[in-house]
């Protein structure tokens, strides 16, 4: 065996119980080296003390402390250390380990130490066939001295609390007893520590040994005995000839000391000190902190502390050593490879290296006890049949069962498979108050117990989603959607819990998102609830959740046309108590319908009639009553008559029946792929939803989407693009456009080309073709992109891009279309900016015209005033010029007021406009403005021509793609494109009109 190689060998042991480890299987080898160095130093002190004078009494606090958290392997480390001590130091006597849990409640720990030492002495005498008080024995004097010392020590024990009578002075009413026995006992009690030192020396002399080694294991876990044991160490185990080893958690030892110290302060004393002596409570807390620190530094010296590290810390600190596991079938793997194998079995293998590495680091950082249990699962997986893989998630849940139950009361529901497992996941997050921090079920929070529970629950989800793809939408809509909805309503989850739990309870009670109900109704109720909340703000006329658009004056009509009916699938409405109705188009409702369809397909074993009936129900347009409360009626909202509340559907509608059939085929062909859904971890799905959500925020801020069809198309592309990008990240495809802002059509067209191209190059990689020769089809993106329900509401050209046909002309036209689509918004935005600038410049030109009139008026007024001075002798001329003067003065004042107002309104224009302009400045500004107006008009004309040509070419390309690919038009998409959406109002830090002109026109 190599010296730098550590191997846990499951062929030798299952490591289920603590036991001494061999050199090659000890995980904490560097800590063991530190431990043995400390022991050797203390052993030399013990030998030195043995040779000192008998009356030389020295007090030493040299306890070796082994610190680590629970399950880190402290007991195994201690047993291994004791085994090495026995082998190396044959003159050291290792006493049996003292476990506080084995000490009776009324028994004092010091008595246990004495009993352990005396037990070793008795064993020695018996082994050497030595009888006590045998004067023929050459060691008679040593035996007698030992026994005399032992008896004196026993007489002094009653002074210790819990030993002897409760009141040692009960018999002190007898004068003779006091003088003879009582005072003797008092003297012995006062020198109990000295007697113990002598007793130890005599015992070691008798046995011809150098020191005793006494070990206390996990005394910090026993609050009743823990502090007593620390006091035993402080008062009595102070001789160098007793080497004390102690294990535990340093934080818990601190709590033991603090508890005992606080008990020294009587409650009434504390009350009087704070109330009457005006002492601050924090003053006492500071005293406790100081006492705790000084006590532990004295008893458990920092230089004698051994801190056991996790496997991860040991791997990083000791890179020269390798850590391997040998399993029962003689397979040997490094710990890193073990956890790669484990993550693959529990559904995390498809994540990108960054996430996988963080998970491996987390697992390697768990306590050794838990890791041993995980290695046991790997051992079972390697040695048992393949059916075991279906049970590994349940066994992971068993390992972390206590962590789960500490955080929730619905632990049993999470243990096993459940069709509504995501509901239980949500309830867990709600109970644990971890919706915002733990929604991705990754062990990345600050709560270590919560982290283990999240990992276990995520593992169970990974196992179940493989055969139940509806859980993907369940997760998105019950967990991710709930989180962002709460935040969009204006509250953070932590604040809700802290300030007003009724808010979140009211939302969930109204929507029932956390119950075992169909999701479509819950999502529609959510829109109704949110609409009610938004209406409370009288300053925002129109606002909706991101991913939901309000329809402008839309009222469903009596129609049985199947195209019309299918268009109702993503539509819903809400009605307030004033009978005002608001209609929405919602991506969330569409996803909820998809979830319910997949759920019922699985429940009814792919029954076409049941699916057809269900779709007939979903195509009904329904509105939902908002929470009853006095609210602000929405301006211009729709108001309907009672007879308009429902639409009668044609149950024989062929398109609905075809959609049912296509959906069933889609599910049957693509929905059962093991490789696809093995990658659908909560972490992966939450990343998708986050990317999707921030994309739809940008879509909703862009008022360029005028119709319900355009909005819904953009929402669906945002979802597909989010899936594609996150899968590309996990498949290490680096060059996709990962922006969440910008024209989603352009981003999607660009990304899908690269995605197809890169996956094609990866076709021959083993990780992709081990299940299929078509890596593209083995993706969640392809599965969703081929969903018949989503295709209904996509632009037909985008649908055609999802075809596998890659003929040259088609690709060429597709790329040309992409360039046009990228250029059009730029030209349109430029034209918009040019027009805005032109409007400002025209206003400046008007100002300059009025300014010229103002200057002319001033000149005329000056001439008239001069005339008045020269006509003092002609009354008729005086009257005439005085009238002209008044007229020019009024004209001057009017122009000055007008020009001043105009100048203020044009303060951001890059021209200096002033009533005190010189002629030269005036001519310069007028010249610049005239030139700029001419230039802008030319640019606007050029852009208009480009836009007209691009739109014409775009239309031709669309027709070409439809014709060549034989794709039908999309009646549902076309119909929704005729329904106008409202302009979404939002509160922004920057006004829409606060536009800064560029330096160059």
Automatic annotation (TrEMBL):
It comes from Bacteroides gallinaceum. It comes from the Bacteria. Keywords: Coiled coil. This is ATP-binding protein. Residues 844-898 form a coiled coil.
